[in-house]
Amino acid sequence: MFKVAFDYFGNADDADDVAQEALLKLWQYVKDRPMECDASRLAIRIAKWGCVDFDRRHRMPQVSIDNDSVGLGADAAPSPHDELVATESREMLQQALKVLNPREREAFELRQVDGMTTEEVAHEMGVNVASVQSMVSRARRKVFDNLQKLMSI
């Protein structure tokens, strides 16, 4: 899965992000249907879809965590619907981030929001790269699980 993502992006950080998400999706799919699928072929397909999804998410307008900007171009005025969606998304994300401890939140925001590389985050936080990878992975899992709970309410 990592190789598929690395071949797509040419970037180990993005490939690692996609591979982690794809592995989680594969595990969730296979745990319910262990005998119904060829896991290796499915893994490659999920990784390819993950690359496309990741690429789309990073080219789409970003929702800011801290302020009211929607992330659209300077000349594009957001519609009322876009503003409402952005506000609701911000509020839901703020709620989901409450499950993180301060170090996880710092690592998560530096990596996911500020777009720093894992090495840059490690330098900024004064820890090694493996610690950053662990904290960010744990934070993603917690935020993902919390968002699922919030969205099902």
Could you explain the architecture of this structure?
The protein contains 7 helices and no strands. With 153 residues, it is an all-alpha fold. It has a domain of 53 residues: Winged helix-like DNA-binding domain superfamily/Winged helix DNA-binding domain (Arc Repressor Mutant, subunit A, Orthogonal Bundle), CATH 1.10.10.10. The protein is globular and about 40 Å long.
Low-pLDDT runs: 68-75
CATH superfamily of the domain at 101-153: Winged helix-like DNA-binding domain superfamily/Winged helix DNA-binding domain
Total E-strand runs: 0
> What would the principal axes of the Cα set say about the shape?
globular
Which structural class do the helices and strands define?
Answer: mainly alpha
Q: Could you spell the SSE succession in H and E letters?
A: HHHHHHH
CATH domain fold name of the domain at 101-153 = Arc Repressor Mutant, subunit A
Assembly status: single chain
CATH architecture of the domain at 101-153: Orthogonal Bundle
Task: List the SSEs and their pairings.
Layout: H1 2-9, H2 12-32, H3 39-59, H4 80-97, H5 102-113, H6 118-125, H7 129-152
List keywords for this structure.
153 residues, mainly alpha, Arc Repressor Mutant, subunit A, 7 helices, 0% strand
Give a quick precis of the structure.
The chain has 153 residues and is mainly alpha-helical.
